[in-house]
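Dear colleagues,

For the upcoming journal club I promised to circulate an example of a predicted protein-ligand complex. I picked one with heme C because it came up in last month's discussion. The inputs are reproduced below in full, followed by the predicted structure.
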Amino acid sequence: MRTRFFYLSTTVLLTTFLFGFAIQKTDNKTKQAPKVDNCLSCHKDIDDMPQGYSDYDVHRQAGLTCASCHGGDPSSTNQEVAMSPAKGYVGVPKRKDIPKFCGKCHSNIDYMRVYQPRIATDQVTQYYTSMHGKKLMAGDENVAECASCHTAHGIFPVKDPRSTVYKLNIPNTCNKCHGNSELMKKYNLPSNQLEEYSKSVHGIALLKQNDLGAPACNDCHGNHGAMPPGITSIAHVCGMCHSSNMEYFNATKMAKAFAEQDFHGCEQCHGNHCVQKPTDDMIGVGKNSKCVDCHDKGDVGYVAAEKIEGEIVQLKNSFDTATSKWEEVRQKGMNDVDIGFLLQDAKQDLIQSRTLVHTFDPAKVVVKTKDGMDITNKAIMLSDKEISEYYTRRNGFAAATLAFLVIVGALYFKIKDREKRK
Ligand code: HEC
Ligand code: HEC
Ligand code: HEC
Ligand code: HEC
Ligand code: HEC
Ligand code: HEC
Ligand code: HEC
Ligand code: HEC
Ligand code: HEC
């Protein structure tokens, strides 16, 4: 009875499994490989495949044929028929027609939704607002169209590391043209964006440390609407990620004066492609100060710069002292936990006061630096206490050891003395 039940249930399980597997298999098949694509078979046979063709192309994987883009009849094995205009064959699109060619599907929300419910369908509209799109429309054949950035026959989903527009690959994709100095000279544009970017905090974070949170070219310029950000929008472009800096800066009188005088927001002090890690001497009145570019000795900006730098440098020094004392406490094996927490808080204050620089208001910076100073002073005091306790304990231990030795010595002689007497 038991064995029969066992066989029965195993058979049922096995059938369900195989059946499910078969369904899944056919499902995949209908979704991925088109039933007939004689365009592909013939082109493969005669070894006339388009440049950069991949079987893993996103369109191919979605079951589209060569004819989905080029038109024609993919069921015919006769070239004359398959590639006849009567069957809708349009051939190779001219460069200026490519946006419309891709837009046939990508601007059609009803069509695209079937494949990806959330895919955007505004690429073509956006593209025509970009410098590339405007110039293409005006007949310039050097600018980027869809296939320049995406290729035509080896396209991958944008999140796939093989995609030409996968985040880590974007700088090189743009650089194909923007790094071409001959080409860029015609437009009076520099061709060093990638070179500069690679040395910037952002480029190092993205290209060397694979930090996908750092901006690539498209994060600042847009994917399809690529334009240099206008003067009024630079702070917003940077502010997408550095929101506090933007908020503080935008609320200042200086920001308004910047806009009126055509100064380029954040870029004015940090640059665009070459943004470096800021240092405290960028503020103040020394030779690396940005403030003295525009402010002269005695004016309100100059005074503010001096005061803010003084505050930050004082906190930084105090923080460094506290950190080295804390190290000593740790080396001596004393209780360092509370001091560690204090230093974490002080570090936050230091970071925040550097962000508060963007209020360009000493009174606002002082609130944080004062808070930080109170904490570092407390940390220094606690460290000193632990260190002095260490010495007290050590001296105490030495005294105790000495006393112990004296007693042991005395006992020894006492015993010896007794033995002698015996
Ligand atoms: C029986 C073979 C055969 C079939 C089927 C076939 N082609 Fe071709 N195709 C060719 C050959 C050969 C050439 C290159 C010579 C020429 O242009 O006649 C070519 C050229 C092309 C070109 C380049 C034309 C140009 O102007 O440079 C495209 C695009 C193309 N085929 C697309 C398709 C599409 C789409 C289909 C299916 C609807 C298809 N082909 C079906 C043989 C074929
Ligand atoms: C996603 C749309 C799309 C699909 C699918 C597509 N093509 Fe193309 N094809 C283009 C575009 C756009 C161009 C012109 C831009 C370029 O030269 O890269 C082009 C150019 C060509 C050319 C001429 C340039 C070259 O690289 O040789 C040939 C030949 C060609 N395609 C054949 C094919 C064949 C064969 C297939 C099917 C395997 C196919 N295409 C599938 C969009 C497509
Ligand atoms: C200057 C380069 C460039 C050009 C030109 C370009 N794209 Fe893109 N495209 C990108 C980048 C970059 C992404 C996004 C990558 C990401 O989201 O990380 C993208 C994303 C996409 C996506 C994914 C969905 C989305 O919108 O994020 C589609 C679809 C697409 N592009 C189609 C097109 C079409 C169609 C054209 C022509 C009208 C075109 N692209 C022109 C660079 C370009
Ligand atoms: C015949 C309709 C059609 C044409 C024409 C077409 N595409 Fe597509 N494309 C699709 C579909 C459908 C998908 C979604 C496939 C999926 O996700 O399964 C897609 C996906 C993409 C993606 C990947 C989006 C993602 O998920 O990240 C890019 C990029 C893209 N297409 C670019 C292009 C470019 C560039 C052209 C023109 C050279 C083009 N397409 C022409 C139908 C088309
Ligand atoms: C096929 C070549 C090509 C590719 C690829 C390309 N561009 Fe361009 N781009 C150009 C040309 C040519 C111009 C000059 C048009 C003009 O300014 O008149 C231009 C102009 C621009 C401009 C406007 C510059 C100005 O001040 O006039 C920006 C911004 C830009 N591109 C960003 C990008 C970004 C970002 C990418 C990559 C996502 C990219 N481009 C990819 C060729 C290209
Ligand atoms: C952190 C944001 C940011 C990143 C990342 C970035 N750009 Fe820019 N880009 C800007 C700003 C800001 C401007 C200048 C706008 C102004 O002041 O007129 C600019 C200007 C440009 C221009 C106009 C010519 C010039 O050099 O002034 C081109 C072309 C350009 N960028 C291409 C690129 C390319 C290619 C990449 C990637 C290698 C890139 N950008 C990365 C912010 C960025
Ligand atoms: C897509 C998000 C993003 C955008 C847009 C962006 N940044 Fe950044 N930025 C980052 C990230 C992430 C880092 C940290 C990189 C690292 O690990 O050092 C960073 C670092 C910095 C730093 C160094 C901070 C430090 O303490 O070391 C400065 C300065 C900076 N960015 C300025 C700018 C400016 C100016 C712009 C606009 C022209 C800009 N950023 C646009 C994400 C962004
Ligand atoms: C690109 C030029 C430029 C740079 C660089 C610059 N400033 Fe200014 N700053 C101005 C202008 C213009 C004004 C407005 C002057 C006015 O209207 O009286 C201003 C005003 C000020 C004010 C007065 C604001 C008020 O509320 O009245 C202070 C404070 C100030 N700047 C501090 C700084 C500090 C600190 C730095 C360095 C981190 C700096 N500025 C860098 C151009 C600049
Ligand atoms: C007038 C010059 C000036 C302008 C304009 C300016 N900054 Fe700064 N920024 C500085 C100085 C000076 C420091 C360094 C403070 C320090 O380290 O003591 C700094 C530091 C930074 C830092 C690192 C400290 C932190 O907050 O993490 C970032 C990020 C930053 N700025 C982003 C921006 C952004 C984004 C904008 C535009 C909204 C901008 N800055 C506008 C002068 C400026």
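Two points we might discuss: Confidence is low (pLDDT under 50) at residues 11-32. The chain is about 60% helix and 0% strand.

See you all on Thursday,
B. R.
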